[in-house]
Input
Amino acid sequence: MTEERKLRLIGTPFRRVDGRAKVTGRTLFADDLHFPRTAWVKLVRSTVPHARIKSIDCSSALAMKGVLGTLVGEELPDSFGILPVSEDEHALAIDTVRFVGDPVVAVAAVSEDIAHAAALAVNVEYEILATVPDFDAALKTPEPRIHDYGDEGNLHKKISMEFGDIDDGMAQADTVLEDTFYYEGNNHLALEQHASIAVAEDDDRVTLYSSTQTPHYVHRALIKTLGLPPARIRVIACSNGGGFGGKTDPFNHEIVIAKMALKLGRPVKIALTREEVFYCHRGRHPALMHIRTGFTKDGAMTAQHLRTAIDGGAYGSYGVASTYYTGALQTTTYRLPNYRFDGARAFTNKPPCGPKRGHGTPQPRFAFEVHLDKAAHVLGIDPAELRLRNLVPADTITANWLQIGTTGLRECIEAVTAGSNWKERYGKLPPGRGLGLACSAYMCGAGLPIYWNHMPQSGVQLQLDRSGCVAVFCGETEIGQGSDSVLAAIVAEILGIDLKDIRLCVADTDLTPVDLGSYSSRVTLMMGQAALQAAEKARAMIAETVAEHLEVPADTLVFADRRVFRADDPEHGLNFNEAVVVAESRFGTLGTTGSYIPPRAPGRYRGSGVGPSPTYSYTAAVIEVAVDADTGLYNVEHVWCAHDIGRAINPVLALGQIEGSIYMGLGEATMEEQVFRRLPKRLSPALVHKMPSMLEYKSPGFHDMPGMTSYLIETADERGPFGAKEVGQGPLLPVLPALANAIFDAVGVRVDQVPIQPENVLTALQAKTAGKDARVGPKKFPSIDYGEVLRVPTPEQGGDGRAVGDPRAQHAGVRSASGTMKDREEALKEHSSATLTTD
Amino acid sequence: MLRLPPIEFVKPRSMQDVLAALTDDPADDEVRLVAAGTDLWPNMKRRHQQAKTVISLMSIPQLRGIETAGGELRVGATTTLTDILRDEIIRARFPAFARAVASISSPPLRNMATLGGNLCIDTRCTYYNQSEEWRRSIDYCLKERGEICWVATKSPRCWAHSASDAAPILCTLGARVKLVSSAGERVIPLAGLYREDGIEYLNKRRDEVLTEILIPADSDSEHCRSTFWKLRRRGSIDFSVLSVAAAVWTDSKGMVTRAAMYLGAVESRPMPVDAMDMLLGKSLGKTLNATLNATLDPTLDPTVGKPSGTAPGEQLIAAIARQAHQIARPLDNTDFTPSWRGKMVEHYAQAALGELAGLPMRRLAPRHGLTVV
Output
């Protein structure tokens, strides 16, 4: 098969297919599109954090010259939401607003200026409800509920599960350590602000062009909210100017303009301001975490208990999955024979949190890796050595039933410790200088789709014709990561043609087979496998006919240099287009398809749907930091990062992802925070985003980036195309704990929260000087009733993947496909064996 | 995207036309001056500064340019920051001024932004520099349309902070500014241009135009040693959350005859540090145990050494820095916490004075604005 063939393109630093257009400004992003008679929409957003809507008065707005119409919530009565279990959003608020920025009215006008002026003229009266600003408040304020569903009061989701027996595990430990950590929320800060344009076509059809990572899910949301048959809605994802998870939900503004386009019978456009992007949010959940781990004196871990409390903001979004993810991947790097995870997500009156690069896992990874660094010091074991002693072996199943594939974590640790000269320098640098190490693992695509189905998660269709061009159709979405290039390269590799011979048609729900979208680091692996399959089928058809034509056995043929020829006699062959002519003459019009469905994960318990992946990537990072002890100011001097990518389809793209992850990780570690101002309660109920602008929401620039050394570790995994695993998200994870650990090595203080402000370092240093605990971080973890614990015997205990005494266990993972919240409750009554999605 | 509200944009060709247009403002608040607009346009897009008519100063050639007369440096108000940085005389004779200008915003904005604009820049506050919709959510604030200063809810005044980096260094160097109106012109010390109020932060009438900045000859590097330090989050773009400008003048015997320090971004105006007078009559060389002749070099390796803190000169520096800390009013209206910024006032003042005294510099890394010009 492919392994035996010599690769010409895969693994080489080929130029990305969209590179020239991107750097010359020719790529058309959603905001670049304009059609004749385009109307502009502005959203009137709530100016209060939590309230009932008493009245809406659009009369002044409608009276303005150039205003074409308005929309209010009642005109879009059906709710939507990315997860079938939390379809709790309306395109425009009906009755209740839940955060400052929640859209209430849409105004359309002939220009953006008029639309804005008209939006400012809409008058909405509110009846103020109590503001729930954070997790603690949500816990203490069950009423008024922000939503009328959820596990309890203002707690949206509660999870408790135990794999093995942690009491037993802790009893075997020589040392039990515990820590509390906090990870502040932050935004994706994609450079491109969300934009969409909807075109009313003939016959009540509507086409939506949008900056989205998930056109398929947007299509589904539009079907539901517009009440139109699927065939009358077309969604095209434009090239995204960055997504990072911030364009993975269907958004209210997309639904609004599609509806407005139908209502007005003309194209309708919206381009969000940066402030509005902060209101769309779906960024990192603020997370408070408590971690307790048992260690033997040799450093083996006997048990871990992790508790998380995450602040979800005003809507569900991916939150149920996010909650699971704060616990799910904890077992993938180091052997944890007994593991308990308790997680809870609160509703609060803030923009909804969701998936950001690493989705739910950077927070517990930060906690775990700093916790391990502390353990290394307590146990007197080098932090690198401690990790090496505990590595999860390849091809094993973890305590929480995740199937591990290949792992190069050992090689990653070896690469970064060699690069940073760890052995000679760690713990030995002059005061104010330090090194820190951390590791991580990440999924290569979520094992299950968002909504339950047995269909492919990625489909690729090829069309070959006598010109020699190959058209590739796939629902995948280019968000800057290079998925278009990966798709084209895989097909070009198998068919032996040039990237320029490939015509891509992607991310169009009318024309392309479904691919679920650019999230969960799934595209290279899943789309890649589908593309590989489709291309192999095409190759086989061509090979068969060319072999007959040349009168040689098919397996002696080579596809390379845009030719099909004999391996032993390269002169003897056909140009690729001639080969296609031969095949087309024989088979008629040539087309093939490929599809990919991930293997079934071994877990069979409620909740086992979150965490499984075809395989996992691994990363290790070392950071060197210089700290000024008088001010607490610090500077990241260098980052070494090694990533087990399985196999790099394109090493330049892969290195770009590593460097981008380091950049984003450092941003979160050093300064980024989505924080809010609450005015004095006696004066105002306000709860506003503190700094919804690119200037005041601090994120590092090029200027602030340290030197970086990246390593690609290749442990080809047969589960991925050509052995490839993910690289888009994993390398972010170790960056934050590595920095915290480096600061400890530099000045001997712990900052158990991110971002690490210079002020925190200074406070900890002053505490150290005063002989107090040299630490800044959360002091306590709240008492949370996580509900009844689900007990799941581990593989080591002879378990079969099911929970003990769970009547639904054998059906775990069965989910219904659609329906509103209410429909789903009824569906559950009827089919009591069904569990909710993502479980 | 955020867009500018409709305005009438006027580009007069002469000062007379500018002054006439200013005088024609019946409501007294419907006409505004603009130079490059790097401050005004974003503010108008967010609608916390408004105008029906905006008069551009950019078409008046006399307002742009740098010249020296009798050693005095005259900079036209619409001279761009990049023009200033490219000027050999300024770089050689007023290096701390150049350093301050080099730290402002980012290269593309410096290509646009003007010195007069920077000196007149609106005071800033994170409750104020927000969109119209955001400000509705807090029912506005004292500075614009509201009743309460949310930074200090019981305060009768607005605490928006001074945002100019050129102001503290030019105040320190004793610069003056020329204000022209149809009634005539006056030249005042730059320090006198500023008021301790976040709303009415300039002693400039609405009908006056700041046309020229005059930096005295005896403040150049031959007569005076000066420096500028800046604290901000990132190495570019960000406004200061603190800046420290300081200068000392000495006689032929090395005795300090004049000394000045101004703090930026910690009050509504650049704050003078009077304790600098403690240096008067002292020999900088002896007192601070440093050589006067050491050149002020922004590329100075800042990594070495740390003062012991015990020498008499160091104690003097420490005393001045403490006073700087005391008079600064860092509040919760910009980046970083006020308490830490307060502590930084002392550290940065100390570092600036240490540099003037030629003490080995400590690195207050990472981003104190020591951009090499």
